[in-house]
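Internal QA ticket QA-208
Title: Verify multi-chain structure generation after dependency bump
Assignee: T.L.

Test input:
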Amino acid sequence: MKLTKTLLATTALTVAAGSAMAESHMASDMTLVSWGGAYQSSQQKAYVEPYQANNPGVNVVWDESSNEAVAKLRAMNEAGNITWDLVDVVASDAIRLCDEGLAMEIDPEADLAAAPDGTSAEDDFGDLLVSDCFIPQIVYSTTFGYRTDMVGDTPPTSVCAVFDTEAYPGKRALEKRPINNMEWALLCDGVAKEDVYDVLETPEGQDQALAKLDTIKDDVIWWSAGADTPQLLADGEVVMGSTYNGRLFSVIEEQDQPVAMLWDAQVFDLDGWIIPAGLSDERLARVKDFVKFATDTQRLADQAKYISYGPARQSSAPLVGQHAELGIDMAPHMPTDPNNATNTFLYNYEFWADYRDDIDAKFQAWLAQ
Amino acid sequence: MSDLSVNKGQPNMSGFVVPVVGGLGLILGFLTGNVVGAPLVGLLLGAVIGAVLAVVLNRMVPNKAMGRWAVILGFAVIGFLFGGLGGAVGGALIGAIISWFAYWIGRGTYRKSVPIYYTRGQTLWWNSFLFVCGAIFVFLITPILVVLPLSFNAEDFFTFTPEMLRLDPEGYSLKHYRDFFQTDDWQLALKNSLVIAPIATIISVSLGTLAAIGLSQSHVPFRRPIMAILISPMIVPLIISATGMFFFYSTLGNFLEGSLGMSKSLVGYIKVILAHAVLGIPFVIITVTATLVGFDRSLTRAAANMGADPVTTFFRVQMPLILPGVISGGLFAFITSFDEVVVVLFVGSAAQKTLPWQMFIGLREQISPTILAVATILVVISIGLLATVELLRRRSERLRGMSPG
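Actual output:
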């Protein structure tokens, strides 16, 4: 009897202490979810380390699970056990999570910092706020890199070099999904750039793209993780391959490999934060405080010191400086630099939201043939 | 009879020795030629060199040691001229293989290990059997050995760079080991593994040993079904256990956090430790049950006869005798938890990430040789643990041999 009473009293005290803490404090632990690699370490250096300097005692744990963020958040939600505080996802995943109610809607005016000149966050991010839950961080592009020592005297200048196995013999690395590959295939099969998505809507157009891809199918190594193509290029196993431009920057400038960028027909995409729905008040308070800091103009510009992705705020662009370790100017390595952006695509969220399942099925069936 | 013994001493040179050694030369030449980029030239050249060596060594150099060293040295020099230090090592290796083979075939040594009455077919079969065994060993061990030098790579890729192949010190570095010991992510993972694995092991050993002793009593009802259930985590595909555990432990964790007010990180550790303990229990049960088979029941009866209660009997009589089984079960449980990636990915959150979790994530998102450095360290630890298991097994056999009855 006595033991039971003591136990109950202790439990009650602990609970009371816990709730008292919540009233006066924000949670001191945060689990951030990101992609690992150079990208995550740029976030660590540009956002987390300065934040921890201002807020000593805040403990940050990284989880490199952005790749399966949608599936994991669904499971966590079903189990009623959200262990993540802030999740880095691509824009299309953010749209899905927002639609399913797994991500929290944000108010740009209240939750995000205004630009130093007073421009509101909503105007500063502009069109990049593609979903009510999405807080954009960077503009990145998916583009090709090629081995400079394996292309002879005529380095490729057009994305169609990928489909030209006679001029550029050797294996190519392509992502194991239809997105981007279908667009490039149509573009190189004579479809005008502005008609690409109109053609891709029709079954005939989809077959046309697959037929074009079929001409190089024997020469393709399919990749699924961003680190694959850099490794294949470094090994000389492929002559060219698509991947994220920041990964290629790392291979070329930081690892000093004989690789060059082929910016032609690069596809822009956005990456940013979402806050999972269902956080406790103290955790939410901490996350909101962090996000406001981590997405302000200076922080986004700082990230470009470590990796060649363009900051999502217009006001950050003039602040982009030099690489933190190599001391080279970062502006010419940004996908948005005018010299690199002569021929670009913007990831078509509406189209792929509508057609992704169908085209995915067709693409996988074609792959298995 | 005399004809046979002559044959045994001197195998037929032109009809047997030259083609066989030439055949090996052909294979080695083809492999070397592939490295250089001229497989066909290598193939022809290898066959010719093999055949010539077979005749020269067996006919003109009766001193086996001298002949072999001459060939090894010669090949090493040729290799050095073509490919630097790495080429010299490769050349010496090929020289060692081909000269050993030439003498082995040419002197009939290959018949030494088989009875004299074996036919050609039987001799061939016996030697190919040995060869297949050797090949299996090579296939098992090579992937592990390849990892070791790559972990000293000076570049950030899983690639044998030209510098590495030339054995140039520039191509090697300890930076991936430094990375492992200096990165917070890896250190957190190491710390978590070192916290989770021992505690999970202690739980599995205690519960598993008790279960094994209970299940070895003949009067316990439903022994077989209980045994089957306890062993099931080892049999059920891990991904299925993991999915189930995810939902089960989420509810448990919510209760501990919400109703008992425990901290999030403590609850996370409890969940992973319990899940790993469940995975380790079958190993303990199996090893302890196996040890109990050799345990003499009359000893417990003797102890009871002299007034010892069951607990004293267990700790003073039974436990010391089954200790080797308990310890080797514990080591298996430890390795299970230390190597486990699926369940921890489901049940744990990032604050509990273990070494395998960090390696798995790293392999997918960032192919960095730091993973290989960690793998090398883990291989060394695993070899140490398995060596311990083997020593304990021998001790247990020795003890059993000495025990009465």
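Spot checks passed. Strands of chain A lie at 29-33, 59-63, 86-90, 135-147, 172-175, 220-223, 240-244, 259-274, 310-311, 344-346.
Status: verified.
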